[in-house]
Amino acid sequence: MKCKICKADAVVKLKAHNTAFCRECFLAFFERQVAKGIEKQKLFTREERVLVAISGGKDSLSLLCELKRQGYNVTGLFVDLAIAGSSGTARGKVEAFCRERGLELIVKDLAEEGLAIPDVHKAVRRPICAVCGKLKRYWFNKIAMDGGFDAIATGHNLDDECARLFSNTLRWDQAYLAGQGPCLPAEHGFARKVKPLWRLTEYETAHYAFLNGIDTHKDPCPYSQGASFTALKGVLQRLEHAMPGRKLDFYQGFLKRGRPAFESFQASQDDPLAPCPACGYPTSSGGLCGACRIRGQVAEWKKEHGDG
Question: Given 116, 124, 204, 259, which residue has the most CB atoms within 10 angstroms?
Answer without folding.
Answer: 204
